Amino acid sequence: MPNGYPNLQFALLFEGLSEDQVKASLQYFREETYAQGTMLFDANTPGDTVYVVLKGAIRISRVTSFGEETTLDIVGPGEVVGEMASIDGLPRSARATCLQDTSALTISSSKFEELIKGNQTIAFNLLRELTKRIRKADDIIVQRLEEQKNALEARYLRLHKLIEASKSINSTLDLDRLLGIILESAAQSIGADRGTLYLVDDIKKELWSKVLQGENIVEIRLPFGKGIAGYVAETGETVLLPDAYADPRFNPEIDKKSGYRTRTMLCTPMRNKDGKIIGVFQLLNKKCGEFDSEDVEFIDALSAHASVAIENARLAQQMVQNERLSAVGRMASTIIHDIKNPMGTLRVYAQVMKRKSGNEEAAKLADEMIRQVDRFVNMAQEILDFTRGVGASNFQILDFERVMNDVLNFIEKDLEKNNVQLIRQCEFTGKVRLDQDKITRVFYNIASNARDAMPDGGILTASTRQDGPFVRIEFKDTGIGMPEEVKKRIFEPFMTYGKKHGTGLGMSIVKKIIDDHKGTIDIESEEGKGTIVIIKLPIEQ
After folding, report:
1. Less Cβ around it within 10 Å: N or C end of the chain?
2. 265-289 per-position pLDDT tens digit
3. 167-307 maps to which CATH number?
């Protein structure tokens, strides 16, 4: 081969030529260099130049009708580029782009035509190269068809899994059961070993889920931003971890407690039809390989169905609750209608007895009868107002110490009958703007719950003290306490625990009254260790 072009020994175009013949042919060529990324020519342009690659690599590609650029061939040293347009005189059929810094011998189309017409060996070599190129193109086409077939089969399988998962998800309106079905469908469909499905609590800015611990299902909560699931809820980003322990956001303490070893993880947001994040999928340990973009795509598609199913379940629960409230409201309305006259009669008789008895003890009993009649009627009216979402308050600025003592005196008599000792630790002596009747019912309801939680007797401690701009009222009992799940739902309508009587509306009404007073109420409780109810009401300045 001539000096300066050592790569020509690999060029099929010059194979079989003597050194003199090669030298004679090279007079038609000149050497050119091209930087990486240079487009030598594009499709549908005139074919005016042929290239013999000396160094580097050239990508031959075509852009499909849907905008995707598909690679047809990679041409390396010794191979010819651009010869077809020179032979048939038609525009270029593909695009040629330098994948690396490239040098090539170039020849004009007219000179190339003259060269192959004047040298039978070069013409035959070009025919052999074209044949080689056609065979290679055939192999590429077959490979692409097989890849497309496999991709279509995989897509069909994912679609089938999505349809089956969607059927399962839409098989129930029970929210707790639904969450389990969604998680199971997601894990099985992408081959995850296990996982957790969190839902978003917008009010508390937390994620919550229910998991099995031993034989009990318990609720777990996670603040936004904490852990990988919290990070996903806060940012909306999908997290793929090939090695969970290598990510500083991963908390290995959970593995230490459970004995489970997390290797790979996929954590992705669940969005509703409006794009709002309503939950987070956290899937662990893919059984074959690592989680990938196809798994993310599948979970995104599943999320659309899951979010609709969750919303339907919540709407169904709300409809049931509204119907139950409506039924209770109808009952309360009937009770009020039926008892209004007899209760009014009893009240009048009690007032008459008080005036005519002339006995101080009888007068006190008559006052108690009047208070109990009013309390009964007001409680029924309050239930009716709650079910209708209405209610009027009679706010007054009152001496809170007097109000508290009156309430505790009223409560104490009922507690004594049930072997419950009332301890008073009241320190606050300021004034508070409140509705005395409603606050009395709040405290009585809390004391009644405490009494029911101490069936064998116990101690109820009532305390008050100033806490900044609030008066802090605490009711602490020595009763049976309550599990975390019950504590989280205690203010929901119809939520009861350990009681065989009542409507389940008591604490819901309590919460509404405290809210109307612009106060707060919180519960601290643990099974077997009693309960503390903490109320804060604004102090009148």
Report:
1. C
2. 999 998 888 888 888 888 899 888 8
3. 3.30.450.40
CA distance 531 to 480: 8
Give per-residue pLDDT as tens, 77-116: 989 999 888 888 899 989 999 999 999 999 999 999 989 8
Residues paired with 284 in a beta bridge: 194, 265
Listing DSSP states for 467-529 in one string gives ETTEEEEEEEE-S----HHHHHHTTSTT--SS-SSS-S-HHHHHHHHHHHTT-EEEEEE-TTS
> Do 167-307 and 6-143 have the same topology in CATH?
no
Task: Using alpha carbons, list the distances in angstroms from residue 409 to 2, 351, 373, 440, 490.
Answer: 117, 21, 17, 11, 27
Domain 392-538 has CATH 3.30.565.10: yes
pTM of the model: 0.46
Look up residue 68 and give its amino acid: E
Q: Which helix (DSSP H) or strand (DSSP E) does residue 41 occupy? A: strand 39-41
Query: Is residue 318 pLDDT above 70, yes or no?
Result: no
The SS3 of residue 419 is coil
Sheet holding 265-271, edge to edge: 216-223, 206-213, 192-201, 277-286, 265-271, 239-241
Q: What is the CB neighbour count within 10 angstroms for residue 83?
A: 22
- Two tokens, residue 44: 């549908």
Domain positions in the chain: 6-143, 167-307, 392-538
Token pair belonging to 373: 């009649």
Determine phi and psi for 292, rounding to 5 degrees: -135, -175
CATH code of 6-143, in short, is: 2.60.120.10
Angle CA 425–430–436, to nearest 5: 85
Q: How do strand 39-41 and strand 49-55 relate by DSSP bridges?
A: unpaired
